[in-house]
Amino acid sequence: MIWSLIVGALIGVIAGAITNKGKSMGWIANILAGLIGSAVGQSLLGTWGPSLAGMALIPSIVGAIIVVAVVSFFLSKANR
Questions:
Q1: Per DSSP, which regions of the chain are E strands?
Q2: Which of 46, 60, 62, 68 is deepest in the core (most CB within 10 A)?
């Protein structure tokens, strides 16, 4: 379980770096974005490519990018 949290955090950090939203998110949000993004990405794209801790990395990163983009969109709308 700890390994899944670590991999989820790394996926969230990568997604935050790609979308330039990672600095505004904390570690807990990065972990959640990575774990939720992993589920979203694997649901949409399947489980192809290399995997760590039961998460296919490429679909997980794509899913985390989607999650970070959607969450940041709604948070920016709520802050206006």
A1: 51-52, 55-56
A2: 60
